[in-house]
Design goal:
The chain is of the alpha+beta class. It has a domain of about 50 residues: Monooxygenase. The strands form 5 sheets. It has a 4-stranded antiparallel sheet, with no helix packed on it. The chain has a 4-stranded antiparallel sheet with strand order 8-9-10-11, with no helix packed on it. A hairpin with a 5-residue loop joins strand 1 and strand 2. Helix 2 packs across helix 3. The termini are far apart. InterPro entries: F-box_BR-signaling (IPR050942), KIB1-4_b-propeller (IPR005174). It holds the Pfam family Beta-prop_KIB1-4.
Length: about 260
């Protein structure tokens, strides 16, 4: 007798969804049949919380065709021939399954890479355009002239705290930018402009969010922490001074709420 996979009880299918680690497996689950798709759709908000955890990475691999990339699934050790198109774009970050791009006018764009597959229609909400960052200063140092010509280097790193579609209310876009590696953030569902950290906090090389707190490491190995409030951000506190020895390195972990040398 044939198995009725489409007729499995919802609680069993919910249990299967809870055990899907990779986002690609969740996508495969959702297209098996109509009943499975319905369960996947019902679990989208729960899935958004799971995306807050570390996900198995997928690597983008350039092809022989300019501006075209394939994805490498590390769990299956397979290259997916999807032919993603990002012509003349420089990535300044990737997070929660989205690619983050710095634009010519110093604006930030979020792209769902799977929506850029050759031969497929672009999905709704697959591109999110954010406002421009503050322009570089027009001073004798020539920062404005340099970054106007080389705008792709203005944003050094960028990250997201949540999926911008499935969990927009919890999503903050955080960027490290400019000549002095300052930091700015934007609350996706609330803000129309960027909020900038104090200019004295500069030389930032890494930032992570752990249990609703932000931790920042600068070039001198100092660690600062602050909270995002409803209006702006809390006072920035230095919680660890830098090391004298250049051979020491601070590692920041997203999965554990602690630091290690």
């Amino acid at each position: 007798m044939d198995s009725d996979w489409a007729g499995l009880p919802q609680h069993l299918l919910d249990s299967v969804v809870d055990r899907l680690v990779a986002q690609l497996d969740f996508a495969r689950f959702s297209i098996v049949c109509m009943s499975w798709h319905s369960v996947a759709k019902h679990n989208q908000s729960h899935r958004a919380k799971l995306l807050g955890r570390d996900q198995p990475p997928m690597l983008m691999i350039s092809t022989d065709q300019e501006g075209t990339w394939n994805l490498c699934n590390l769990m299956d050790e397979k290259v997916l021939d999807l032919q993603l198109n990002f012509l003349n774009k420089r990535f300044c970050g990737s997070s929660k399954g989205w690619v983050i791009i710095g634009e010519e006018n110093f604006a930030i764009t979020l792209l769902d890479p799977l929506s850029r597959t050759k031969g497929k229609e672009e999905k709704e909400n697959s591109i999110i355009r954010l406002p421009p960052l503050i322009s570089p200063p027009d001073d004798e140092g020539g920062a404005l002239k340099f970054f106007t010509k080389h705008y792709e280097y203005y944003v050094k790193k960028a990250t997201l705290t949540a999926d911008p579609i499935l969990n927009a209310n919890e999503c903050l876009v955080v960027v490290i930018f400019g000549y002095f590696s300052n930091m700015a953030f934007l609350r996706l569902s609330k803000d129309t402009t960027w909020t900038y950290l104090d200019k004295e906090v500069k030389g930032i090389c890494e930032v992570v969010c752990i249990e609703n707190k932000f931790y920042v490491v600068d070039h001198w190995s100092r660690i600062f922490t602050f909270d995002i409030t409803t209006q702006s951000y809390s006072d920035i506190k230095c919680v660890a001074e830098g090391f004298q020895s250049e051979t020491k390195m601070i590692c920041m972990s997203r999965s554990k709420s602690k630091f290690s040398n």
